[in-house]
Amino acid sequence: MRGLHRIGAGLRSASSTFEISQVPKSLPNLAETVIIGGGAIGCSIAYHLAKLGQKGVVLLEKTELTAGSTWHAAGLTALYHPTPNMKQLHYYSINLYTQLENETGQNVGFHQPGSIRLATSPVRMDEFRYQMSRQLHKDAPQMIISPDTIKSLCPILNMDGILGGLYNPNDGHIDPYSLTQALAIGARKYGASIYQKCSVSNIQRNSEGLWEVQINSEHVLKAKNVVNAAGFWAREVGHLAGLDLPLVPVEHQYLVTTPIDVVNNLEREIPVLRHLDGSFYLRQERENCLLVGPYESQESMKLCEDWATKGVPPGFGKELFPSDLDRLNPHLKIAMELVPCFASANVKTVVCGPITYTPDLLPMAGPSQEIGMWLAVGFGYGIIHAGGIGRYLAEWILKKEPPYELIELDPCRYGSWTTMPYTFAKARESYGMNNAVPYPHEERTAGRPTLRRSGIFDVLLEKKGQMSFHSGWEQPSWFAKKEEAPFYQPSFKRTNWHSAVQREWQTVRNHVGIIDLSPFGKLYVKGPDSTKFLDFITANHVPKAENEETYRICISHCLTPSGKVYAELTVTSLGNDEYFLVTGSGSELHDLRWLRQHAEENGYNVSISNVTDELGCLSIAGPKSGKLLEKLCPNLSVKNFKFFTGKKVHIDGIEVLALRLSYTGELGWEFYCNKSKIKLLYEKILDTGKEYSIDDFGTFALQVLRMEKGFRMWGADMNKDTSPIEAGLQNFIKINKGSFIGQNALEKEFQEGLTKTLVPLLVDSPDVDPKGDEAVWCAGKVIGNTTSGCFSYHYQKPLAFAYVPPFLSTAGTNLQVDLLNTKFSATVLPTFQTTSSKK
């Protein structure tokens, strides 16, 4: 490599061994919250809990603060994240780091020269435009800049092939060691206790609901909450508490050069650079060196699989792996072309250390399924996340609800289907594609399919169902007929499935369609207190079965104490204090955790069982679905099968729970039966439905149909950032029914009025459809954001849902929606319907 040579072995160990000392005499017997792990994440959680007023905060560190991954991190701080919700974490972190020295007296070595993501292809410029459209309603001072501006900010660049950049002026880098020490100083200042050389040897929950944390195999510390922030030891700590966490350390490398005269002579520090197609970051180190950190390809990168399966080697604390520059060569070659002075430099240090990843590279942050056991693990970008995640989890612990929506990080997105082979395959793919173009609707195939398969998975695959991944399940987004190109053709604009989805939409609108909804979360709530419990935890009336043959159904919402939408459930009363609950595929364990937590904390005598993997679900919908039902069940008539009721029926000898409702807005039913019988049921429905032109449809057509009907989707149109009143769900809220979670907050909102409300928008865009999170403009200002989007075949235009101020919610109001950084005219449509299915 031209002139690039190593001149030393580099770092290997900051402290090659550590000893577990005797238990400190000052260690208490009782705490409110115990945090396991003294890296940047753990210290931030301790700092924020103590600062927000919690007493009895104890942090336990196995070796010494920053051991593990924190001490060797490159320390990058970036506002950018492709997931808009994550920006709140990053924004808070950057603001915190700017004032932490004044608060604690500890210099944190925070540099803010800005950062530039470099585009070297037209599709990268589209990516930047896409991200700009999704940033403007957040606190995000980012902009697309020209090659000339890039050169002025970073004069050492070779500008050949650079088309533009995405610039964040407040980004930079920080010293991870100093940051962690500052957070620890702050934590102690506000009353937290920090103990080093305290290894956790056992964790178990006692009959009083407290966690007993055994330290150094002798002392037992009891606590209401335990936070696992143990970095690459997190899997082992999880095992102590009975949790099998999908985590695997990755060897991440970066190098630091010897001093470079050209860099030393610069008038100001260069921005942090991210060459996306070259898959590396580059920043200035000290006054005259460069630091370059590549993300190797899937084939070249290294996982620490043995660590995940056998545990971290004893004594490993502040050690590094042997470096391997050969793995970095393809990236370093591009870096030399980009920064010519880098090519003539020597290598002073190569850092190759473990960083722990989840399958999707997003951390797991929040409560686990075990009440009082919290997770803050899997941080591939722990330094920028540390400040924000500390505040986020501290508020959740103290207020018993998350401060804002971050479902992307919820530990409950993973379940028993997340095996270690899946974790390894997915982490390898995710790391290797770290800088790949983040297309909407992209499907990455590593580790798929999992063990979680519908009873008709193979059948749907043979019928060219184009699969999307939902919490371990494979579910067709659309079906490719002979004349239609299969597979997803990546684009930020309208793409190859458009005509196929229109065909499926027409089937449901004009005839009858069938869709596999087996990924739905399915729960049973039973017991003498089941009715009282559901009445307390949901905002709607609890349905009552009409008789032994006819069940009643209602749509109910679980609200947080502040009146936000935590979950949406379809509740069916089966009689005898038994209820069948259905939720979305992505919220199964999320909702189960909430139900079990509140049942235990409030002393309700109920049992809650998860039957998601045991039951399958098929749905038929369309104007001819009633005739099809009568053919399938000759003893039934649609006239006597009322909307929002259910019955147990037999179809070709298969026992089925049939519910009359449909997320399409058309006449329809959902059929639930044993998963082993789903294939037989599917074949019977298709055979009987031939005379009604039945055909399959996927989730993309379902999205169009539900939006045209005005149905909201949990996680997008309503979530922990919105109230049911803002989302227009008043019909499902019975404010005077009796005490329920969130009632007081809703009463206050009714009195004070709304600051935003959800409206449908028709958008005049020729080839770009809204996806959600795009900025909405009025009179030159950003006044809201979209939540969902599609192309409406009914209107023959893109359709979006958006939150806007109430005074702009009148039908006919003209607004603009930002798509690919271009403003398109949009018109508010008439008010939503508030029913959930066609009667």
UniProtKB/TrEMBL annotation:
Question: Where does this protein come from, organism-wise?
Answer: Gryllus longicercus
Gene3D superfamilies noted in UniProt: Aminomethyltransferase beta-barrel domains (3.30.70.1400), D-Amino Acid Oxidase, subunit A, domain 2 (3.30.9.10), FAD/NAD(P)-binding domain (3.50.50.60), Probable tRNA modification gtpase trme, domain 1 (3.30.1360.120)
* Family according to the record: Belongs to the GcvT family.
Any signal peptide, and if so, which residues?
A: none
Query: What range(s) does the FAD dependent oxidoreductase domain occupy?
Result: 33-396
Ranges for domain GCVT N-terminal come to 457-737
The chain positions of domain Aminomethyltransferase C-terminal read 756-830
Q: What is this protein called?
A: Dimethylglycine dehydrogenase
Q: Which GO terms describe its cellular component?
A: mitochondrion
Q: Which residues form the FAD dependent oxidoreductase central domain?
A: 401-450
Q: Which residues form a coiled coil?
A: none
